[in-house]
Amino acid sequence: MSSPRTPPASTTGQVAPDRSTVSGSLGLVRILLPIVVLAAGIAAWSLVVRINDIPPYVLPGPQAVFETLLRDWPILSQSLVTTLLTTLEGFVAAAVGGILLALLFNQSKWLEYSLFPYAVILQVTPVIAIAPLLLIYLPQHTAVIVCAWIVGFFPVLSNTTLGLNSVDRNLAGLFQLYGASRLQTLRYLKLPAALPFILGGLRIAGGLSLIGAVVAEIAAGSAGAGSGLAYRIAESGYRLNIPRMFAALLLLSAAGIVIYGLLALVSHLILRRWHESALRKEN
Amino acid sequence: MPDPALSENVLGSLAVSLRGATKRYDNGLLALGPLDLDVRQGEFVSLLGPSGCGKSTALRLIAGLTTPTSGTVHVSRRNSQTRAGRDIGFVFQEPTLMPWASVRENVRLPLKLAHTPPPEANARVDQALAQVGLGEFAGAFPRELSGGMKMRVSLARALVTDPDILLMDEPFAALDEITRFRLNNDLLKLWRDLRKTVIFVTHSVFESVYLSQRVIVMTARPGRIAAEFRIDAPQPRQEDFRTSVEYAGYCRIVSNALAPLHQGQPV
Questions:
Q1: Which of A4, A89, B90, B121 could crosslink B111 through cysteines, CB 3.0-4.6 Å?
Q2: Nearest CB to A184: which of B63, B92, B113?
Q3: Alpha-helix runs per DSSP H in chain A
Q4: What CATH number has the domain bearing residue A202?
């Protein structure tokens, strides 16, 4: 700051606080604000239920939901584990299937032209409409995993394809110059270059696998053989056990947040040394 | 050698020889040639011309990254059994480093692709990094380096296979002048020490005269040889050469040859 523009000494302490404090308190605000909103929302919810004296089978208050969560924990936790396992299986299938398909497409244009439209069709057809059909032809456990796979694999496939095609042309020329084999080019050039894209696809697929698992469970739930969280929600609905519906929903949301957070963390840890997306902003 | 054109050359054996080489792109555009070019072993030659005159295409032909539409490209190899890359080092206009790999891994790449045993590869990577003055930065990632240092890594990678021929495609064009001058000097020192054949593409008259034994001025598309100048200033050339009357004189001659070739060309 040049001297003519320096504000009067008495105010400098207030107008120019330390830069690190500003970013530090900004970070705190970013954590605190959503918590405040959550607390306000719960308080309003509780208030509305109490003032209007709404019975719990219409709308339970937050306290009733929380109590149900604790009381039914043995059942709900078991259902949570079932749903998470299904999601994990679907996610792994989506990741492996999506990446392998993209690699195949990358090696052979013929294969890509032949199959890619069907991957798109599979993606745009609502999974909720496919699930009942799958349940007819496949064992229930397999059908649920296939549902999770169908919704999860496409973002992995399309992102991986994008990544494999985004290789720097000069680097590709360099590999050609040094006589790299197809496998070497794939391993040392294409896969590392595609990694940020693949991780982005996996982050989307994680949440979608959960959705796929829930959709399939609900579809199967009406057949009466499931035991996951979505099945609990459907079952509690029939029994007008509304607090348990809310508790199960709460767990599903938490599971989705944790899945997303974990995948974002993994992605950050893998990319932090070199990729723009994982680097801190320069001051 | 059976080719009569080659026997004219009495000064030394040829490293690179192009005869009537042309390159026509798929869209029918003739980018280069016909081009006749001989480069002796150990010679430092610059191809000078404006952007889009086919200089880079000529370099890619020599490197074997693309094939000529007609004519022949002959590159002498120490051992005809070795694969293309080992005898040629290529430095692109961009540093062209793998952002996910450390400096050491970037330089090691050509050796890794050639399945060089790790102990030998390590020694050669260390040597190449020392040659460009980056020994201490082996563990750094490309994004942590300045533009000049990235270019040095690129140069080390080209040198790590100990190639006979170094092809450089406007390597310092994107750098600031101070960094460019330093890299010019370092490159000249490497060339004097290692006696490699260097074919250097540039659009800078001053850079070509400073570095080369021979400057080849090229016409606009399709790129052909318009004029050739021998720069007989003795080595080692240092900063004082840059400010000498002799240097200014060479630059004037080359500039005068270059200017009329591109008048009226769209830029």
A1: B121
A2: B113
A3: 9-15, 19-52, 62-71, 73-107, 109-124, 127-137, 140-164, 169-177, 182-185, 191-221, 229-238, 242-271
A4: 1.10.3720.10
**Tokens standing for residue B7:** 């026997």
Last residue of a domain, one of A6, A32, A53: A53
Residue B55 distance to chain A (closest CA, Å)? 16
The verdict on A66 and A166 lying in the same domain is yes
- Same domain as A209, residue A230: yes
B201/B92 Cα distance (integer angstroms): 10
Q: What structural domains does chain B harbor?
A: 1-76+167-267 (3.40.50.300), 94-163 (no CATH)
- List chain B residues with CB under 8 Å of A275: 99-100
How far from chain centre, in Å, is Cα A119? Answer: 21
- Consecutive 10-residue runs of chain B (267 residues): their mean pLDDT? 42 79 84 86 89 83 88 74 65 92 94 90 92 89 91 93 90 88 90 90 90 88 83 80 84 83 61
The structure tokens listed for B228 are 């050739």
| pLDDT, tens digit (0-9, with 9 covering 90-100), for A253-273 | 999 999 999 999 999 988 888
Q: Classify residue A87: in a domain, yes or no.
A: yes
Q: Specify whether A173 is located in the same domain as A195.
A: yes
Q: Which residues of A touch B84 (CB under 8 A)?
A: 177-179
Do A49 and A154 fall within a single domain?
A: no
Residues A47 and A110 in one domain: no
| Token duo for residue A166 | 């985004």
Residue A9 located in a structural domain: no
Model confidence pTM above 0.90: no
With respect to residue A81, please indicate whether it lies within any of the assigned structural domains: yes
DSSP H helical ranges for chain B:
4-7, 55-63, 103-113, 118-131, 147-159, 177-194, 205-211, 239-242, 245-258
Most A-contacting residue of B100, B153, B155, B157 (CB-CB within 10 A), to test interface: B100
Q: Count of residues for chain B? A: 267
Structural domain boundaries, residue A260: 58-271
Contact B113 A179 (CB under 8 A): yes
How far is Cα B65 from Cα A227, in angstroms, rounded to an integer? Answer: 60
User: What is the count of structural domains for chain A?
Assistant: 2
Which residue on chain B is closest to A169 by alpha carbon? B96
Find which of B56, B62, B79, B98 to mutate to test the A interface (most A CBs within 10 Å of its CB): B98
Looking at the fold, whether A48 and A64 belong to one and the same domain comes out as: no
- Using one digit for the tens of pLDDT, what is the confidence trace for A57-81? 889 999 999 999 999 999 899 899 9
Q: Per the domain annotation, does A185 fall within a domain?
A: yes
- Residue B34: Cβ-neighbour burial (10 angstroms; 0-12, 13-18, 19+): middle
Query: Tens digit of pLDDT for each residue in B205-223?
Result: 888 988 999 999 888 778 8
How high is the ipTM of this complex?
0.83
